Amino acid sequence: MQDKKAHKFGMVIDLDKCTGCGSCTVSCMAENNIPFKEDESDKKDSITWMRVYKLTNGKSFPDTQTAYLPRPCQHCGGKGDHGHSPCVSVCPATATDYGYDTGIVSQIYTRCFGCRYCMVSCPYHARYFNWWDPVWPEGMEKYLSPNVSPRMRGVVEKCSFCYHRYQLAREQAYYNETDEIPEDAYQTACTTACPAGAIIFGDLNNPSHRVHQIVKPDPHPDPLNHDVVGKSRNPKVFRLLERLGTNPKVYYMSEKEWIRKVGDSYLDGEWDKMKNHHGSASHD
Amino acid sequence: MKVDRRSFLGLGLGAVAGIAISPVGAKLTDDSSIWTQNWPWTPVPPDGKITYGQSVCTLCPGTCGINVRKIDGRPVKIEGQDTYPVNNGGACLHGIAGLQYLYDPCRVKTPLKKNNGRFEPISWEEAITLVAGRLGKIRENQRPDSLACITDTNLGSVPGLFSHFMTAFGSPNHFTMQTLESWLTQTAQTLHGSGHTLGFDLDNADFILSFGAGIIEGWGSPVACFKANSGRMQRGAKFYQIEPRLSNTAATADKWIPIHPGTEADLAMAMCGILLQENLFDPEFAAGFRGGLNRFNAMVQQKYPVDQVAAITGISAADIKKTAIAFAKAKMPVAVPGKGRGDGAQSLKEFAAIHTLNCLTGNINKKGGTFVKPVPGYLAFPDPVQDAVARDGAAQEKLAGSAQELVTKIHQSDAPVVDTLFVYSANPCYSLNDPMQTRAAFEKIPFVVNFTSFMDETALASDVILPISTFLERFEDVPSKAGFAGLVVGLAQPVVDPVFDTRSPGDALIHLAKTLGGTMGDSFDWPDYKTCLKSLVPGIWNDLSKSGYAVVSQGPPAGRVRTDFAFLAENPSTIQPQGDADLTLVPIDDMRVASTAPASSPFAIKTVSDRVIKNRDMFVEINPKTANGLKDGGFVTVTTPAGSAKVRLNFNEGIMPGVIGMVKGLGHTFDNRYVAGKGVNVHELISPVIEPGSGLDAAFGVKASISKA
Amino acid sequence: MDAALIPEGAKRCSFPKFMLGIAIVGAVLLWGVYAMLLCWFKGLNQTNMNDYYGFALWIWADLAVIAVGGGAFFTGLLKYILKIDELKNIINFAVIIGFICYSSALLILAIDIGQPLRGWFIFWHANVHSMLTEVAFCLSLYFAVLTIEFIPNILENRQLNKVPFFHHLAHNMHGTMAIFAATGAFLSFFHQGSLGGVAGVLYGRPFAVREGLLIWPWTFFLFTWSAAAFGPCFTLLVTRITEAVTGKKLVKDNVVHLLAKISGWMICTYIIAKIIDTIYWATVTAPGLGFEMSHFYTNNSFYGYWILVTEVIICGVIPGILLINKTTRENHSLRLLAIILGVIGVCLNRWVMVLQVVAVPVMPFDTWALYIPSWQEVATTILPVAYGIILIAVTYRYLPVFPQERELNQSKAQES
Ligand SMILES: Nc1nc2c(c(=O)[nH]1)N[C@H]1C(S)=C(S)[C@@H](COP(=O)(O)OP(=O)(O)OC[C@H]3O[C@@H](n4cnc5c(=O)[nH]c(N)nc54)[C@H](O)[C@@H]3O)O[C@H]1N2
Ligand SMILES: Nc1nc2c(c(=O)[nH]1)N[C@H]1C(S)=C(S)[C@@H](COP(=O)(O)OP(=O)(O)OC[C@H]3O[C@@H](n4cnc5c(=O)[nH]c(N)nc54)[C@H](O)[C@@H]3O)O[C@H]1N2
Ligand code: SF4
Ligand code: SF4
Ligand code: SF4
Ligand code: SF4
Ligand code: SF4
Ligand SMILES: [Mo]
Predict the structure, then answer these.
(1) Residues A42, A281 contacting (CB under 8 angstroms)
(2) Alpha carbon distance C160, C7 (integer Å)
(3) Smallest Cα distance from B637 to chain C, Å
(4) Mean pLDDT for chain B?
(5) Measured between alpha carbons, how far is B311 from B260 in angstroms, rounded to an integer?
(6) Is the pLDDT confidence value at B10 over 80?
(7) DSSP-assigned beta bridge partners for residue B340
(8) CATH class for domain C3-266+370-401?
(9) What residue ranges do the domains of chain C occupy?
């Protein structure tokens, strides 16, 4: 199913550069017709496909440290990277699906009947339910983009890696009579917005793309955990909850060890043993 | 046929069975689901041809180039312009949410006149006639100086036209809001003579010593600073942040040095002392030092001994020394003043002391250094035509040194100080310290004319509102502002026809001047603002109209810089926070909250942490050590000499014990349910303190106490 | 008034008294219906669910009623397949309870989903990998089976039975019931199991995830097992409540003791499996993902170790022991205690496997999420309870649900 030409779009987010400004969140909301309510302070019902979490090292003044972690949908490849993402595998109506040609996990609003099983299955809280019908202040619906359909209440939505931008890039490529989609022809709205240049987006399968060069994904299953595929061979790069075997396509990068450690759970003493393990040695 | 019970039953059952196996059920089921997929109340955005429009964002002093995606002429998305020399792609959340301002629920849709406390719509013609009538009377009474004007800045042709108007009319009373630009210009003027301002080449510096400057909190040109911050990581340039709180800037810095708030000037003075004592200053640059270096040296050695300053600032003497020496020994060091966004109340002493560090290293007007550069002078305004009344009025003494001082004066005076006030692109009734006082002062001004796009706090306190097109609907030259190393002038251009009955502020002023006639009309002898703009920028109009921007200056300014130490040698006193309570309340600049005008967009508010605002309640940050048994998330009353507010506590290990912080830019009181009515305006808790040397408000914080609410 | 409809020889309260009871419960039912309509017309913003609690009170209620409704398939299995004939005296009631439970579950699902009018997409666009698809198919089919199992009992109503067609239909249906019971048991096995699978396959949720056999995680088998074990407890409990309300003995002690004994042994075997599963999960599965067991039971104000102890020991081991031991089993109060604990235990298990699963933070920088249901959720959850009470009242009044009722109450009358 995964032919040679298949893309595997992914992201690297440099957490040292990330300023926590929230521009990625807003760019995503503006790009994808995400509504807003009068009160958005309950973050558990506030739709933000791109949510920026605040991390702390847990130490007290003056040794405390903070950082920010932007979290789009991780476009999980699922155990063994076979396309059975936590959410895709559970959706009873196939309203969310894995694109084997892109690695993108889609969400079909008109198909979704709102059972929310996918939300329960997603450990990243990347999925949002439309508890309300979207309502824009009078006249403001004029700025809505036709590239992304506004959702009705009762359905789940999430980051699509700005799939419509891929479609436009693909159409352009077709028009140019090539199957190559150049790296800069398909960039997500959060990537282009980020004022710090902290987000890098591209095809993890394409060695000429920056994401591939930074991540150096290991194509072989992790010898310590066969569910994990595509582990980064860059010691500064990690994925969120990598040990669960969800195989996200969003990678994070930091010089700071405490930040890399916050990406996953470790038993006492385990981190020191695991932190130096980066992909299978045979492919370095 | 006789219909008995049995046949009736049979018929019924048959009908039910028939319907059940017919396609009717399936069809209805399918239809109903299709109906849910096309609910008429879910908007379906019309598709169309994609085009792009370019403009410049004016929502903050950042002046980023933007690219607007449009569908059949309808703007749908704002993004940063990749080729614009300020932001080079990327934009901040406020700029990206810019289209929300276009359709903001509290946009002023038509000119308004206040009648018995209520606004009623009037036509542009009526509005201009009304204002012109008032101004005519003022001139008849020979008191043109009783017209005052507050604009957000004095840079660019639109503030320039207000200035031109004031001079032609005969009033010296044009004030600007206190911004980073005001502080930098004052600093440059004080140390290097008038006509100068400061820029910082953060893109190339190898050691940035920031005295609280929120490089990634919105200081200067935010996107440019974000990029500089990312760039310096790649270059391996050092960044030290001196600040009472672990801001996002402090968190990304190589070193965070917590300091007691308000003692930054003392620290900078002590560091100057160390550089002078250790002979770590640049002798070549020192050749340009004028007046008072020796006096200054003697003074700092005597008044700012490191041990004493260590006690005052809370930073160890060893750390002060180490930091000063590391700074001085760097190849391209830059010391950056301006706490947070740099637009709040701070002090000239602080700015001057910090900039003196730059002067001592001699890294001035060099790549990777501090630029002492002329204030932007690309605009060629003709001399205004004045009659005798105007000449007399303009020669009067200016009423105050700053907008804050003006407001305080109006508030405290029994006699009317100002007859008519123009406000353009500013919201003093919200963003000056003690806005209650400001609103009371506005009550005392007989006639307030507000050139604004939004029905904000100041608009509500005005008598006539002239609705102004937003930056997406009009032309304007937009010069890069405070702290930016070079000078880039951009052209804001209409990417969409005005959505409401609004006008460009320039056109409104030209119309007003023409209606006044006489010398006013002569002074505004342009058919419209666009023609005016073209004539004002003859040197760069070609660039502006072709590429949307003109790079006026780039790289280090040429020429020798002279430095005068007279101001600091006098050892101006450090401003102390008012009050005598135990805690010090300081405003926090949060990139996600717009601090001045216009207020945040709904999208921006949506990104605000639930540790800043929850429901309508505001949080103050406090170190758990200071909380004295109060609970995280618990309600408390914060009391300062200026007032009190009920807030919730947000325990933060990243704020110095003894300091509490409150995010600036919330607690709006106008009519926008997405943005206003959330939290507390921190300015309500701080009274202004005018610094004698600058005339600006220097109340960076205030003493506060908290008690369980 | 309605004497003609009442089973022959059975004593029932007066019609007005009956209607008064129905009206009181009916008022509660209407409250639930009102809440249900609010949810349908205004949307799920009427609930306190949120993006962390995508599954909440309702899904718990759903799983709980299906678990306790498991008495129907298990008793059916025992009666028709294993030919334990005494159970014919309680099978009707077990089927009615099952019918109520399953129809309630379907109703709750129809309220729970965000787009009820698209609910059928689960069949039309079925994803064979989803446990919920398996649940939906088996649940609907089993509900159909329960309906078929229920019909003969309805046809035994005194008036309906006079119609020869209905009389013969009922008779013939009884004859074929073994086939339906077998089908039901098979379907039940899968849907009870796939409900367990719903949680167990969540490999993104270390609290829920379980290893297993083929495509089925251990929770698949544990759910089926626990439904078979505790379902009869619920049948017995509802029988006991009905007896208390009607003031009559309806089922003979030997039948009760037999079902209690089977239930007891099922509970004991189940709880051993559950304990092994918990230990394996706590010492192998979760630590393998980086989680100490304490992560799931500390740092929050509700989910402590108490919940594990209550579920497994107090409401698992104890009722199991009480029911396998003859003296305690045949002690009226201790048996009642055991079946109550058992019902609580299985409901608690379902709560844990739905609510605690989503409450536990997975990302290290996330926090526990607790929630309190809104009144609309509570009302719609009580709605099926009210509906169940009314259905039991009506069926008890008009149908010969308990074959031993006449005998038990006549002899009593004769003795006194
Ligand atoms: N029952 C019923 N079914 C229908 C219809 C109906 O009326 N009733 N209408 C039909 C019609 S006309 C339409 S247009 C469709 C609308 O259904 P969809 O085609 O799903 O269109 P949208 O609802 O706009 O959802 C678009 C989103 O789907 C995802 N997506 C789209 N294409 C792809 C893709 O190629 N790969 C991946 N991975 N993701 C993709 C993206 O995330 C995108 O944001 O539904 C069809 N099906
Ligand atoms: N809120 C919301 N709105 C949406 C969408 C969404 O996802 N959400 N999806 C959009 C999409 S992708 C689509 S395709 C549209 C679909 O929206 P429509 O294009 O409105 O499609 P239908 O609802 O199928 O309606 C088509 C009409 O044509 C009639 N018709 C059928 N056959 C014929 C024929 O042979 N000749 C003629 N003259 N008429 C015929 C039908 O009876 C019906 O009245 O909805 C769009 N609107
Ligand atoms: S826009 Fe960039 S810097 Fe800002 S929060 Fe997002 S990733 Fe971080
Ligand atoms: S992050 Fe969540 S929603 Fe996205 S693919 Fe993974 S499981 Fe699915
Ligand atoms: S909520 Fe929608 S997308 Fe999610 S599992 Fe259910 S039907 Fe699928
Ligand atoms: S990739 Fe697109 S949809 Fe996803 S978070 Fe970024 S902007 Fe939003
Ligand atoms: S930084 Fe300022 S100028 Fe730039 S996009 Fe943001 S608000 Fe606009
Ligand atoms: Mo369509």
Answers:
(1) no
(2) 11
(3) 27
(4) 94
(5) 10
(6) no
(7) B213
(8) mainly alpha
(9) 3-266+370-401
Q: What is the ipTM of this complex?
A: 0.89
Using an 8 Å CB-CB cutoff, list chain A residues near B105.
137-138, 140
User: Which atom of ligand 1 lies nearest, measured to the CA of A97?
Assistant: 38
Q: Identify the pLDDT of residue B595.
A: 84
- DSSP string of B517-567? -HHHHHHT--SSHHHHHHHH-TTTHHHHHHHSEEEEE-SSPPS---EE-HH
Tell me the CATH number at B210.
3.40.228.10
Percent of chain B with pLDDT over 70: 99
Pair type for strands A127-129 and A105-107: unpaired
Cα B80 vs. chain centroid, distance in angstroms?
Answer: 19
Q: What are residue C355's phi and psi, to 5 degrees?
A: -85, -45
| Whole-angstrom distance, CA of residue B684 vs CA of residue C51 | 36
Judge whether residue A282 has pLDDT over 50.
no
Q: Which of B682, B698, B594, B687 is nearest to B645 (CA)?
A: B682
User: Which ligand minimizes its atom distance to the CA of A141?
Assistant: 2
Contacts of residue B279, defined as CB under 8 A and 6 or more positions apart, other chains included, come to none
CA angle (A102 as vertex; A101, A108 as ends), nearest 5: 100
Q: Characterize B131-170 residue by residue with b for buried, 16 or more Cβ atoms within 10 angstroms of its Cβ, and e for exposed.
A: bbebbeebbeeebbbbbbbbbbbbbbbbbbbbbbbbbbbb
CA–centroid distance, residue B37 to ligand 2 (Å): 11
Could you read off the pLDDT of C128-159 as tens digits, one per residue?
A: 889 999 888 988 998 998 999 899 889 988 88
What distances in angstroms separate CA A114 from CA A50, A253, C52, C110, C321, one per listed residue? 21, 35, 14, 11, 42
Look up residue A141 and give its two tokens: 């619906």
Contact B90 A192 (CB under 8 A): yes
Chains near B, with 3+ CB pairs < 8 A?
Answer: A, C
Query: Measured between CA atoms, how close is C398 to chain B, in angstroms?
Result: 22
User: Which sign, positive or negative, has the C-alpha torsion B510, B514, B519, B520?
Assistant: negative
Residue nearest to atom 2 of ligand 6 (CA): A162
What residues of chain B have any CB closer than 8 angstroms to a CB in chain C?
Answer: 29, 32-33, 35-36
Before C217, cis peptide (omega within 30)?
no
Radius of gyration for chain A, computed over Cα atoms and rounded to the nearest angstrom: 19
Domain membership of residue B701 as a residue range:
583-708
Q: What single string gives the DSSP state of each residue in B337-372?
A: --SBTS-SS--HHHHHHHHHHHHHHT-BSSTTSEEE
Burial class (CB in 10 A: 0-12, 13-18, 19+), C164: exposed
Provide, as residue numbers in chain C, all residues whose Cβ is less than 8 Å from the Cβ of B29: 117, 120
Flag the least confident range among A187-196, A275-284, B6-15, B365-374: A275-284
Element (H, E) at A57: none
CATH (residue range A9-283): 3.30.70.20
Kindly give the pairing relationship between strand B563-564 and strand B289-290: parallel
Q: C-alpha angle with apex A255: A254 to A261, nearest 5 degrees? A: 65
In a domain, B669, yes or no: yes
| Ligand 6: residue whose CA is nearest its atom 3 | A159
Q: Which of B6, B32, B33 to mutate to test the interface with C (most CBs of C within 10 A)?
A: B33
Q: Nearest-CA neighbor of B34 among C122, C121, A110, C120?
A: A110
Ligand 1, atom nearest to B37 Cα: 7
CA pair distance B37, B25, nearest whole angstrom: 19
Please state, in angstroms and as integers, the Cα–Cα distance from residue C141 to each residue in C148, C172, C396, following that order: 11, 21, 26
Tell me: the pLDDT tens digits for B416-455?
A: 899 999 999 999 999 999 999 999 999 999 999 999 999 9
Number of domains in chain B: 3
